[in-house]
Write a structure and sequence with these properties.
CATH topology of the largest domain: Trigger factor, domain 2
Order of helices and strands: EEHHEEEHEEEHEHHEHHHHHHHEH
Strand content: 15-25%
Largest sheet: 5 strands, antiparallel
């Protein structure tokens, strides 16, 4: 009768040995040969009338091996299910029995497997201390947003030359070296910028410029910190790259524009906030304030979740079956690695695995589930955001478009993870210790740069 022996070979690392007698696999082997004979098609024999002895001679070795290994797998899975072993990945085969599997001399066999056990995790949410930041929306911020909306919903004209800080420039950033030569495989990117986005030292150089004119700029000199960070990101550079601001560009002007701002009336208010039926400027400014409050609330909530994430990962300590995981990286993963590669990549792999274990336990404890309807609704809202649609009534085709998105396996996986993670943090943010603090936008941005996940 088959048996499974369990032996500890390291930290959270066990060896399972499946022991078979010939009585464990021979009946299924003989049955498989008979079944094969009934379905085999061999010239000279009617279907289903091929002698079992001929089938055994022709295919017996492979069928014998399959049945032995199938029996091993069944016994191994039954044992792990009964013992309720919580393991990483799948058991890894160790050294095979030294004797060859021999159909003509059935014998007792032993097969050894290595397993990595998941650690017990103690997560103490009330002990996690975080700060919920809040941004006070000031009159200055409201004025800036009103200005932005006025530009966005204004009428664009095309004057011959740049006349003021309010002109809009369509430009091409072309990366060059100190000698003015175009950098091979360098950055070449278009953008649209207000003259006022440039630093005060650069703006005089732009006055009088026309379409097809150009100037040479250094990012550090051409933009103040706030605008420079946005430009660097748009150019595909890292904000953490200290040399990014030193890059030199030839700035080709491809179009000169000027926005005629709309009147402060109901037409402008409806364009900025469709469906709110705003008629008075005071109500419009209140709507702007509410919109800004929502935007900042979203950012401060993300920052709160970021704090919780780092507290969980940095503060929750537990061990891993290191030797098993490194071996699994080499032979058990789809992308095989050398021992050297596994050693180098293990720290990052471990950190990722740590969050997976923590989040999985928290999702089980908080019963976090994602329904198909939520994924479809996410797809619909995403399309509405991309296309500026305010109501489903404005896009009767939206459901069919969303259905097409749901055929993309990668989209479903990413959306499932995003919804699941959002629901998880929404559930646990009320279970940690929170301190409230009022901050400026600049202070919040500085805190966001300190952490990311």
């Amino acid at each position: 009768m088959a048996s499974v022996l369990r032996e500890n070979i390291g930290l959270l690392n066990d060896k399972l040995t499946v022991q078979l007698t010939k009585d464990d696999y021979m009946p299924s082997f003989e049955q498989a040969i008979k079944k094969y004979a009934k379905s085999a098609t061999i010239p000279g024999f009617r279907k289903g009338m091929v002698p079992a002895g001929m089938i055994k001679k022709m295919h017996g070795v492979n069928v014998f091996t399959d049945e032995v290994l199938r029996t091993v797998e069944k016994e191994l899975n039954n044992y792990m299910q009964i013992e309720q072993l919580n393991i990483f990945a799948q058991p890894l085969p160790m050294e095979l029995d030294s004797r060859q599997l021999d159909m003509n001399n059935p014998a007792d066999y032993s097969f050894a497997f290595e397993i990595g056990l998941k650690p017990a995790i103690n997560i103490d949410l009330p002990s996690i201390q975080v700060t919920r930041f809040a941004v006070d929306v000031t009159e200055e911020m409201i004025n800036e947003e009103v200005e932005r909306l006025s530009v966005r919903h204004g009428n664009m004209t095309e004057p011959e030359a740049v006349e003021s800080d309010d002109n809009v420039l369509n430009v091409e950033f072309i990366e060059i070296d100190k000698e003015g030569n175009i950098v091979e495989n360098g950055i070449h990117k278009g953008n649209s910028l207000l003259v006022k986005y440039f630093s005060e030292s650069i703006r005089p150089q732009l006055i009088g410029k026309k379409k097809d004119d150009s100037i040479t700029i250094n990012l550090n000199e051409a933009f103040e910190e706030k605008e420079r960070e946005w430009i660097i990101s748009d150019l595909g550079l890292s904000k953490d790259d200290e040399t990014a601001g030193d890059k030199i560009f030839k700035l080709n002007i491809t179009k000169v524009g000027l926005v005629t701002k709309p009147e402060m009336d109901s037409n402008f208010f409806d364009a900025a906030f469709p469906g709110k039926n705003l008629t008075a400027e005071a109500d419009f400014r209140n709507a702007v304030k509410e919109s800004l409050q929502q935007q900042w609330a979203s950012q401060t909530r993300s920052q709160l979740h970021d704090q919780i994430y780092h507290q969980l990962v940095d503060g929750t300590q537990f061990e891993f079956p290191e030797s098993f995981l490194k071996r699994w990286m080499q032979v058990g993963n789809e992308e095989k690695k050398t021992a050297e590669e596994a050693e180098v990549e293990y720290p990052n792999f471990k950190n990722s695995l740590k969050w997976t274990l923590i989040s999985s336990q928290l999702m089980d404890e908080n019963q976090i589930k994602v329904e198909n309807a939520e994924i479809k609704e996410f797809a619909r809202r995403q399309i509405m955001g991309y296309m500026g649609i305010q109501s489903l009534d404005d896009a009767p085709w939206l459901d069919s478009y969303a259905e097409n998105m749901l055929k993309d396996k990668k989209f479903i996986e990413n959306t499932y993870y995003q919804i699941q993670t959002t629901k998880l943090f929404s559930a646990i943010e009320h279970k940690v210790s929170v301190t409230e603090q009022l901050v400026t936008p600049e202070e919040l941005n500085a805190k966001k740069h300190n952490h990311s996940h």
